[in-house]
Amino acid sequence: MTSTRVLVLTSDTGSGHRSVSRALVAGASGAPERGIELIEFDPLVSGDPLLAQERGTVGVRPALMDRVVGLYGAVIVRAPWAWGLAFHLAALPGMRSIYHALHGRTVTSRIRAAIRATRAQAVVSVHPLVNDAMVAASDSEGREVPLITVVTDLVDVHPWWANGAVDRYVVGTGDAAGALIGLGIEPSRISVTGIPLRPTFGRVTSSAREMREHLGLDPAHPTVLFMGGGDGAGRLAEVVGACDAVVRSRGKEVTRFVVICGRNEPLRAAFEAREWRGPTTILGQVANVHEWMTASDVVVTKPGSLTVSESLAIGRPLLLGPPLPGQEEGNIPFVCDNGAGMAYRDATEASMLLDGMLADPASLWEMGQRTFPLRHLKATERVLDLVQSLVMKSRNPQS
Known about the structure:
By secondary structure, the protein is of the alpha/beta class. The protein has 2 domains: 4-197 and 377-395, 3-Layer(aba) Sandwich (Rossmann fold); 200-374, 3-Layer(aba) Sandwich (Rossmann fold). It has helices at 16-29, 62-78, 80-90, 95-118, 131-141, 174-182, 208-214, 236-247, 265-273, 289-295, 305-314, 331-336, 347-359, 361-369, 379-395; strands at residues 4-9, 36-41, 122-125, 147-150, 168-171, 190-192, 223-227, 256-260, 280-283, 298-301, 318-320, 341-343.
């Protein structure tokens, strides 16, 4: 079978964009009968393996953006306000043109080289900083390959996601679709599929007790999963510490805490050195987050779109912390107004809310049931179907 080659533009600013691109790659590789090959490429940094022979021809400031991408994790952990400022400043008139002058040509050149290297028959963007460059690169090549943008934010859509030359937009919610329409994108170009997740999230059949036993935990103990995204953000140390003091008091020491620190090794080391009031599992980066979510009664996390989508897919209630200013703010009302979770403003409130949630299993179960209408277990398959459909139409424009 002839393979359809699709270039997927992604980056490691946070874990969400890369998670989506890898979900699409996994969905395609797990269904060889589709005859579609997805190739990831990060055009925001120099040295991506796809273009090992850049030879200095793809831009004059590669080191600048490399540093910016590398700083993202530190900024959202230590100074989330700075990220919020940058997010909102970037939306001001003229800022898009300034970015293009500083780095857009570099990104465009890299994408153009990647299209040539892969002979891509479609290009998918999962990052707002590469959308304009994707369009410019495709135009300069004179190719009529379909251009698809997968928006990785559930509700709040930054203006840089929107480019009228993109053939099709994929979004996670009707709210995101409405935001794109407000930015001038035609409704006919928008598909609401949910955010693509790794296929493993659609295959979980175990109960929480069964999964705890599988992971070596006591199946009878209530279990809480704490997360802070790929960078361990969201004041994780304060929140877990406060919950340890409150939730595990008054005879409830058996409650199991599982803390995923992501790439934040200093945080992981600090947690491992700490004495806890009850059973505690400390983890770094994990490949089986779907299993840890399944084993949990509630997920305590910052309201990142991917983590929220993953937890909803598993059917677990959420306890959400303060959002990263900008793209996470709308996720809290999306979850809470639909009855699928609660939100806290600080560590003290987090501990009190979590204590109340665990003390009322019936209400916690009802929250879990309310996640079902919000989840999209077939999102990855639907996006791949869409990509293949657009490729077929580009080959047979009269059909």
